Amino acid sequence: MGTPRSASYFVFFQLSEKYGSVFTLYFGAERVVVLHGYEAIKEALIDRADEFSARGKRPFGDKVTQRKGIVFSNGETWKQLRRFALTSLRNFGMGKKSIEERIQGEAQYLLEQIQDTKEQPFDPKFLLNCATGNVICSIVLGKHYDYNDKRFLAFMDLSNENIQIGNSPWGQRLKPNAMRGRQFISEEAKKHKATLDPTSPRDFIDSFYIKMDQEKHNDASVFTSENLVFSTSDLFVAGIETTSTTLRYGLLILQKYPEIEGRVQEEIDRVVGRSRRPCMADRGQMPYTDAVIHEIQRFISLVPLGLPHAVVKDTPFRQYVIPKGTTIHPHLTSVLHDSREFPNPTEFDPQHFLHEDGTFRKSEYFMPFLAGKRVCIGESLARMELFLFFTSILQNFKLKPLTDPKEIDITPLKSININIPRPYRLCLVPR
């Protein structure tokens, strides 16, 4: 049975057995504190969220982000940009029917692209990246790109390459790549500015320009052209690769367990049928499918250490005092793979999220989007995309692996920041 625990993080389980749920490590010259297990992470990030709300240091990442934008900034800059982004995302449909309809439309477009593969083997990575990329483009840039648009493809290639580089020892290559990605955003922003109607914002970039104009006499305003580009870049990174990688990993896992794929398709046929598109209202009637999607996220533990936090002041915690500014790494895999909450945590088992009577079982230990003040701002969007894309694909296609399911390896590639599935190709056969 494959396990998604990458070897580089398995050592944290061993260290916690020896040193407990809070321990210090050195990442190069930097001293960091690792939080291991649900209780320690909940106490820090939820119960004492304000004290642990700063963004910690990240090798290479700080050079790339310059501590600007939403994800890597701190203090008042972070608070204002995050609040503005959340409001804007909601205004443009996140969590509402309007964005659901956009995702359904993109799912339809994706199904047509899959149909064009004509049951031949292909790597789903490209199509899934384009699909999730277009959803975020609709919110941020107010447009949909064709999957063969050259500028869109170049941007998607950069995004994908950044994940690969960031997950390798060659992180210093991130900077020129990130600059090229920001160039794409800057060019789009200039087009927006030239056609802006302040009374009718079309998307996130328009809204940001309007906010900049409102604060043009405030010399200390965080709403600058630079933060516009960095914030938009953050939304793309958060909105494309994580969801796309989860979908891709999920399709690999379901190839290994065709009986689980079959049960999901039976539930889709019973609740949705074949003649209409799946919608979010269906999820409450589809506990098994919901459990499978949750189990995929739990099992793969996509970002094993989350993103680094830091304490905003000298902070007494358990039997220690953590000095102000110390980087904190919450070991999310230790929560998602907690054997008390999820028996046999390294096995893929949808029963982890089902009661004995087959109804869906919620768990406080399910925190793939992290928790507290820095929880992923796109969580509701990602959850909607995962459900609608998965159900749309499985409603229309049967997964056909190229090898014996028993031989499919679902352990991740050796990783530093993110658990990525091994490259694969498959056939998708119309049902």
Any overview of this molecule?
This protein is of the alpha+beta class and 431 residues long. It has a single domain, classed as Cytochrome p450 (Orthogonal Bundle), CATH 1.10.630. The protein has 14 helices and nine strands. The strands form three sheets. Strands 1-2-7-4-3 form a five-stranded mixed β-sheet. A two-stranded antiparallel sheet has the order 5-6. The longest helix has 32 residues, at 225-256.
- As laid out across the biggest beta sheet, the strand order is 1-2-7-4-3
What is the CATH topology?
Cytochrome p450
CATH architecture: Orthogonal Bundle
Q: What's the N-to-C terminus distance?
A: 28 Å
| Number of alpha- plus pi-helical segments | 14
Question: C-alpha Rg, in Å?
Answer: 22 Å
Q: What percent of the residues sit in helical stretches (DSSP H or I)? A: 40-55%
Write the H/E string, N to C.
HEEHEHHHHHHHHHHEEEEHHEE
Shape: globular
- Provide the residue-averaged pLDDT: 90
The largest sheet is: 5 strands, mixed
Low-confidence stretches: none
Tell me the domain tally: 1
The beta-strand count equals 9
Keywords, separated by commas or semicolons:
alpha+beta; Cytochrome p450; single chain; 431 residues; two-stranded antiparallel sheet; 5-stranded mixed beta sheet; globular; 9% strand
